[in-house]
Design brief:
alpha/beta; Rossmann fold; six-stranded parallel β-sheet; three-stranded antiparallel β-sheet; 9 helices; about 30% helix; about 15% strand; AB_hydrolase_1; methyl indole-3-acetate esterase activity; Epox_hydrolase-like; AB_hydrolase_fold
């Protein structure tokens, strides 16, 4: 049995994993899906939503487990698990980036997006007057990240998305090869992604080599559009060489 800790992305919550969780549990695995601070049921003020708060939240989830976990970060969750791995490398079997921000030390999530010519995220962002949070143009939401999602999925998304605090997105990660660098990494790229373009994803997993790169022909949120395939990839990792800390082949 493995323990999966699934970290959601910007503006969302643990609810995004509702299709994937039962598929992992059916195979006998433990699945933890925390709401990050300011998201879902984890309520706090906007001022309290920081990268450090996110990292502390995930770190606490790791400390509560008896064995190292498979830590999955989607989108913004990728930036978070990168910093988490710096502080808790021995509590992680494998880092899995699901169309996630795989950042080098000193980089921020926002600067990756600003340099991403394939992303339509910032072009459709609506910032609050004080620039501390952002939402997205409702009419562009499907194109941004949900191009292959059903009407039912979109109804759920529209009812649950919340403004995203900017602070975590502009805070650089700080990592070392001795901590973050020794945790095995796997990248799941989404080839029809308009949030983090495929070229930007490739640039990240080329700069920080991963033991394995898995390609999914989906938009940004395959946990909604292709949950069976995504769960299959995650289940395959538990027995893979990368999860056991050995070197695998990069695609």
């Amino acid at each position: 049995m493995s323990t999966f800790v699934l970290i959601h992305g910007a503006g969302s919550g643990a609810w995004v994993w509702h299709k994937v969780v039962p598929l992992l549990k059916q195979q006998g695995h433990l699945v933890i899906t925390p709401d990050l601070p300011g998201h879902g049921q984890n309520l706090c003020s906007l001022a309290e939503v920081t990268l450090s708060a996110y990292v502390d939240c995930v770190g606490q989830a790791l400390k509560e487990q008896s064995e190292p976990v498979i830590l999955v970060g989607h989108s913004m969750g990728g930036g978070i698990i990168t910093q988490v791995a710096e502080y808790y490398p021995d509590r992680i079997q494998t880092l899995v980036y699901l169309a996630g921000y795989l950042l080098r030390s000193g980089e921020t999530m926002l600067e990756i997006t600003q340099a991403d010519a394939e992303s339509i995220l910032l072009a459709n962002a609506i910032f609050t007057e004080d620039q501390l949070a952002a939402t997205f143009r409702p009419e562009a939401l499907k194109e941004i990240g949900y191009g292959d999602c059903s009407d039912e999925d979109m109804a759920l998304v529209r009812s649950r998305l919340i403004p995203q605090a900017v602070a975590p997105l502009v805070t650089p990660v700080s990592t070392t090869t001795g901590n973050f660098g020794r945790v095995p990494r796997v990248y799941i790229e989404c080839l029809r992604d308009r949030t983090i373009g495929p070229t930007a994803q490739k640039r990240m997993y080329t700069a920080l080599l991963c033991e394995q790169v898995i390609s999914m022909d989906t938009s940004h949120n395959p946990y909604l559009s292709c949950p069976q395939a995504l769960a299959g990839h995650l289940l395959a990792l538990q027995n893979s060489k990368s999860v056991n800390g050995e070197s695998g082949a990069q695609r």
